[in-house]
Amino acid sequence: MTYCLGIDTGGTYTDAVIVDVENQTVLESQKSLTTYPNPIGGISKVLDSLSPDYLNAVSSIAVSTTLSTNTVLENTGDTAALILIGDEKYLKTDDSDSTSSKIEHYIIVNGGHDGNGDESAPLDTAAIEKFVLAVKDKVSAFAVSSYFSIRNPAHELAAKELITKLTLSDGVSHPVVCGHELAQSLGAYERGVTAYLNAMLLPVTRRFAEAVISEMKRRKISADIKILKCNGAVVGISEAMEKPVESIFSGPTASLLGASFLSKRDTCLMIDVGGTSTDISMMEDGFPDISESGATVGGWKTKVRAIRMETSALGGDSQVWLHSPSVSDLSLEKIKLGPRRIIPLCRAAALYPEILSVLGDRIFFDKFRFNEYVQPIRFFIRSGADVALTPDEQKIYDKIGDRPTSLHDILWGINYLPSEILSSLVQKKAVYMIGFTPTDVLHVLGDYTEFNAEASAIGARILSSFLEMDSVEFCRQVKKQFAQKMALEIVYFLTEKGLSDPSGELPAGKPLSDSRSFIRSFLSFKKPYAKFKVSVPVVMIGGPVQAFVPELNELLDAEFLTPEFFDVGNAVGSLVGKVSKRVEISVRVIQTESKYDLRSKGVLVHYPGGRRAFEYRDDAVAFARETGRAMIEDYMRSENIPLERVDLTSREEDVFISKGSVPVQTTFIFEGFAKNSL
C-alpha cells in the first residue's frame, strides 16, 4: 500500500490526514491547536497523535499553510528593500502611492526596456550602489523590478549581480528577488510588489520549511515533501523556500481541492468556515477557478496567479458583542458579529477553569458605553509578545496577567474607561481578548461540544439579559445572523460569476453594488415564496460547519454537502494538488513604423529569461513551440516526475491587425500537469 501524509496549518487548528492512495480513502485524521509564533509545535503535536504504523510508512508529504498570508496581513515579515527600474511616470499605478508608502526602503532608478526588449535608458548602477550601501545593514533581502523585464530581464539581472557583490560578507550575500522570476505578465509595479513580498517572506518561510524538514528527519521519515501553492499546484519544498509568495492563500486552496475530492464533485462551490474567516471558491471540471488578474492580500496587488476567492472576516472565533443603545429599539440590531477574532469563552474556560468562578459574578452594567472592547463578558490575557508600549498602555498592561483577567479587575482603581488603550494593546498583539463567539453559540445549542459548554451558557445568559431575551433564543438569532452572512457571500460570489438565479428578481443591468444591496435586502427580509437558486453543489468544509445547513436551506435553494472528513478537508486537499508548470512565450512581428509600409522587420520571441530574433515567423513559431515544451519537461525532471506521467497542453492566442492577415503577435501558453495518484 502507498500512504500519503497531508498537513494543513490553519489559524486555529493544525490538521493531519493519512490517505491510502490505492483505495482513495482517508485512513486517519487528527487535529491539534496551531502554535504561535512557530507553527512547528502544532505540527509536531498532531503528528504525535497519528498511528506510528501509518506515519512511518508514508511515501510523500504535502503541506498547506497560512504562514505567508498571515505574515503579509500582520506585516511580520523580515525587512526588505525594493528597487524599481524605469521612468517613474510609467511605474505609477492607481494604488502605487498607497502601497509604496508601506515600504520603508524604496527607490526608483533610471533604466528599463521597451515593448520589443530594447534598452530605453542605461541602467543607473551608481544610484543602485548608493542605495544598497545605505540600506544593506537595515534589510535582509532586496527586490528588483524593471520596466518590460518580461521582454528583456537584462537590467534586473545586472542589478541582482551588483547587489549580490555589494552585500557579500563572509561568503554570503543578501537574497535578491527579480520580478521576471515570479511573473510573466505586464505591470512592472505589480511585479515589484510581488518580488518585494517574496523577499520579506524568504526568511520566515525558510525557517518554517527547515523546521518541517528537521521534524521529519527527527522522526526518520524520508518521504518527499511538497508545498501547496495558491493556484492548486504543488512544488518541492526547496522551490517553495525560494518563491514563498506563491503560497499565499495556500490554506483556502487546500480546502477547495479537498472539498472536490471528498465530495467526488469535479464542479462545486466550496465554503470553508474557519476560526478567523469564511472563504468561498469554486472548482470547474476538476480545476480551480483561477483569477488571472493576480491575488490581492492585505491591500497588496500582486501578479501571483491564485484561486478566485471571496473572503469575509467572519469565523467561529469572531466576537459576538453588544452595541450601545441607539435610536433604534430593535434588540437584534444591537447584536454585532466580528470582525475581530478573539478566544472563545468555552475554549478559555477549558484551559483556565477559574473563569467559571468569576464569570457570573462580575458584570459590567453600563450598557451605554458598550463597544468592541468593553463588554459584559470580556477577559484579557497577555500574549507573551515583546512590544513597545506607551506609559498609559503600560499602566493598563500591568493590570493584565498571564491568565485571564476580567474587565472588572482592569477597571478596579481607575476612574476612566480605557477603551482606546485596550484597543491599542490588542492591535499591537500585546494581549488577547476572550469573549463570546459563534463557537460558544454552538455549545449552547448543543451543535458542538468540544470545550466547556457551561462557560458558553453563562455567557449567553448574561448577554441576552441586556436584550431582555431568552438565552437560547439569543443564540438562535446569532446563529441565524451568521448563516445569513454566509448566504450573502455565496450569492455575491455566484452573482459575479453569473451562476445564481434569484427567482428572476435580481435587478437587470444594475451595477454590482446595486445588486449587492438588493441581495442583502432580499436575504434580510426574505419572501416566503422566493429563494436564490444556486446551480452548483455547495461543499462545506471546516469545523462544525454542518450545524448551519438548516439555516442556509431557509435562505438558498441549493444542494449542501458535508462529506465525511469535511472537518479536515484542507489537509486532504494539500495532497490533491498536482505538480504543474506554466510557461508563456510570445512571438511578435516587428513592423516598419510607416503606416504606408507595413512590411515586417523581423520577428522576436520573448520567453522566460530571454529573447531571440528571427527573420521568418515560421522559424520563430517552431522555436517557441520547442522551447515551451522543453521548459515544461525540464521542470518535471527537476521535480523527479517521469515524463510519461505528464499531461502537456498548449494553446495559442493571436492578435491581428486586419481580418485574414498574419498575426502580429501570438502568445503561446504551455501547461504541464503531473498525473496525480489521488
Automatic annotation (TrEMBL):
This is Hydantoinase/oxoprolinase family protein. PANTHER family: 5-OXOPROLINASE (PTHR11365:SF2), 5-OXOPROLINASE RELATED (PTHR11365). Pfam families: Hydant_A_N, Hydantoinase_A. GO terms for molecular function: 5-oxoprolinase (ATP-hydrolyzing) activity. Residues 5-165 form the Hydantoinase/oxoprolinase N-terminal domain. One of its GO terms (cellular component) is cytosol. InterPro entries: ATPase_NBD, Hydant_A_N, Hydantoinase_A, Oxoprolinase-like. GO terms for biological process: glutathione metabolic process. Residues 191-323 form the Hydantoinase A/oxoprolinase domain.
